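User: What would this chain look like folded?
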Amino acid sequence: MRTRLLTGVVAVATAALWTSSQGAENGAVSGSVVAKGLRTSAGVVVSLVAPGLNVTPPRQPVEIDQKQMQFLPHVMPVVTGTTVRFLNSDPVPHNVFSPEGKYNLGTWPTGQGRDYKFDKPGVYTQLCRVHPEMEAFVVVLETPYFAATDASGRFEIKGVAPGVYKLVAWSEKLKSAQREVTVESGKTLTVDLTLTR
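Assistant: Here's the prediction, encoded as structure tokens.
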């Protein structure tokens, strides 16, 4: 369900990018998210969506570690085509599988890892068959403009081309929020959001 929601937002976005003049300075979006009813506002993924955005995955894998019996980080936003390397820094074997992605990377010991390439946008739960209490989320986006909130709920998205975007805030436990925003050349737009159940 989370996968369909995020993909649908990308598909129905109708905001149009402005055509920036040559040498126009990029802008930024920053602000805070209040996650009502949760102990922390960390791990909310805030992204800027518009038609025709190009994404380039990183050349090297990004890493999620399994350490102290948890996935670190708990929420990892990436662009489509990104390879994630799942590490194991615990003294016990770990496994990684995803019900949405329908993959199982197997089980491996301390010091080893497994790679998985995320080719389709959506939200993918990461679980461990050996330790069912472990859970994380990989949020795959079709935009280069995104950030995850810190423990205080703060976020900042830098280097945003001037234009009109749909800002989307995703949380694993709360309802997503959307808002149309305009990013201006050389300016930082401040956006504060409250997410509820």
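Confidence is low (pLDDT under 50) at residues 1-23. If you want, I can go into more detail on any region.
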